[in-house]
Amino acid sequence: MSTATAEGRARGAPASAARTSVPGTLLQILILARWQWRDFLRSRRFLILLGIIAIIGAVLTAVIGYYRPGGMLSASTNFYRNIWGNGVTLVILLAGILLGGDAIAGEFQNRTGYFLMGLPIRRITVYVGKFLAAFAASMAAMGFFALIVLANGAFYFGGNAFPWQFAASFGLATLYLMALLGFTFLFSSMFKTGSYATLLTAILFLFGFGIVEAVVSVLVGVEPWMVISYSSGIIGNIFEDPYPPHIVSVGQPGGPQFVSYNPTIETGVAIMVAYLVFSAGAGLLLFERKEFT
Predict the structure, then answer these.
(1) Neighbouring-strand partners of residue 258
(2) Could you check whether the bond before residue 14 is cis, i.e. omega within 30 degrees of 0?
């Protein structure tokens, strides 16, 4: 072998090695999240989600414009507490169900995981990348609803349409969205069929958690801090000044008295963070252990 040939091969080795090197975990997460994000934006379910939000916004706009409820339009904080505080939790639930229900289960159901796991890529990369993509798409849907609400607020209240509580409430709604997605990803990791995970999540958030919250708080008299839906109350309550009391007695004078609870800001945030950390972590552990057979 000539010296020139050996030197040429030596010079070409780094370039060849660079071409065959595998991206790091962080870069893989960003790449997968970007492509999954594009798939979400092009998917029918995302268009359905935006369509539902548009219908909700149109109905709210028409009803408020026609009836002009005095209690709601007396102050911008009352308006946002009722429209944003109650509506955004529904938007977050719909986004979590439609975008996160089969995020992991779909890898088994659609057989895409058999090809994806054959690549030099870790499962945590797939899990985190899909979570970030679902979060970004859900934030786009939530932002769309926020624009509808803010447009109505600007119409009715002009320069006083943007109280500082809205920014705080939007931040709390974002944290609640992350917690709900973490819980959704946990159920998505339990099953190999996306419809099971989606249906179970919908039943729990639409009926199950509400029943548990009512039984625990009203009948047992214990604060339902163990239920994630209980924490969502701070999203709307933050608009009230003063903030609602933590414990409220419900009942007629001389009759039976029941106790209901309003979560404090600290309690609500702690519940959301706990659900996000534990449910997302448990979902990742299940995904790591599940076999593609």
Answers:
(1) 250
(2) no
Domain with 236, as residue range(s), is: 24-289
In a domain, 4, yes or no: no
Question: What pLDDT is attached to residue 139?
Answer: 95
The answer to whether the beta carbons of residues 188 and 100 sit under 8 Å apart is yes
Tokens of 28: 């893989």
Pairing of strands 258-261, 247-250: antiparallel
In a domain, 147, yes or no: yes
**Does 16 map to a domain?**
no
Which residues, 6 or more positions from 263, have their beta carbon under 8 angstroms from its beta carbon?
223, 225, 230, 231, 233, 234, 237, 246, 271
Tokens of 217: 């708080």
- Alpha-carbon span 151 to 207, nearest angstrom: 32
* Distance from C-alpha of 111 to C-alpha of 38, rounded to nearest angstrom: 20
Residue 17 lies in a domain: no
Mean pLDDT split into 10-residue runs, the chain, 293 residues: 42 45 76 85 89 95 91 89 93 89 67 58 84 93 95 86 90 96 87 77 86 84 90 94 86 71 94 95 85 60
pLDDT at position 182 is 92
3-class secondary-structure state, position 261: strand
Q: Which CB contacts under 8 angstroms, 24+ apart, belong to 111-120? A: 113/292, 114/292, 117/292, 120/22
> How many structural domains is the chain composed of?
1
Q: Provide the pLDDT for residue 191.
A: 77
